[in-house]
Design a protein that fits this description.
Blueprint: H1 22-33, E1 37-41, E2 46-51, E3 66-70, E4 73-79, H2 81-102, H3 108-121, E5 133-141, E6 144-150, E7 156-158, E8 161-164, H4 168-178, H5 185-199, E9 208-214, E10 217-220, H6 223-229
Antiparallel strand pairs: 1-2, 1-8, 2-9, 3-4, 4-5, 5-6, 6-7, 9-10
Length: about 230
Amino acid sequence: MPPSYMAYDRTIVVFSPDGRLLQVEYARQMVKNGSTSLGIKAADVVVLGTVKPSMPLAVTESYRKIAEIDSHIGMVSSGSLADARNLVEYARVKSQVNKVTYDEPVSVSTITKYICDRKHMVTQYAGVRPYGVGLLIGGIDEDGTNLYETEPSGTMISWKAQAIGRGADKAKKTLSKGYKDGMKADDAIKLLLKALKAGEKGASAENAEVAVVKKDGIKLLSKDEVKKYM
């Protein structure tokens, strides 16, 4: 980094002369360094998948990259697991508040906006840092199946299929070639695992984490079920 940039590198609230927030860019890099995560919108489900980091002697069931926000909304992350956990807890509270206040399930777009607003808020005050995590949020509501991406700046984008993390570029090529509107759940799972293997050389049934978000609940596939689709 040029020495002239150092003055704009110390706090989140100062733009560089060429209009960049350097701390946000560093947070984006943390997402790019994370393991590959994907989401695919199918006809009546949303499929989420990722590869869990492998740590010797760790109990793999004790940490997950896919989380349930509500019975009809799931999320997969890339980047900081701690930041992802904090946002999941925040989103769960917002979901329940919506249920109590309006007596109806929160929409996928609404919960995504809540998360994006929180991400954006920490880019506007000194003494805080951006969330170093990217999220793919998938669910089913009155509008049908939905898949959204949130990134560290608070940007919100809707996708048919998307990949984030270190293998995103290779995974996106596979998604672009194989995706079809209205594809069935089984085809979406097969495509997701194919894209995951393209993005992560070591992807296998042992370390892959795949969830199917349905209208009436979220199902996390077992290792044996993942093997059948691989």
